[in-house]
Amino acid sequence: MLPSSLPFITMIPAVIVTSYIAGAGPGVLSAVLCGVASWYWFVPPVKSWTLTPGAAIALGLYAAVAGVSIWIIQRMHRAHDRLQAESA
Known about the structure:
This protein is mainly α.
């Protein structure tokens, strides 16, 4: 009943929290692992590596959203570090 992109959307908070706490590298690893897990276990046909056109679009959108989220958090950390250096 749910759209095929929903499992990917539900993984974005995990990617954001991992990126914020641990940094960009672990955030990318989290994005890849969450994407692969969602694709295999939740996207029809389940428990299959079949890539339907709908699943490919959902996977691409997930990758774009996860990538932008990681990039924004990385930029935020850099700006914070610069502000701390200036105030010191």
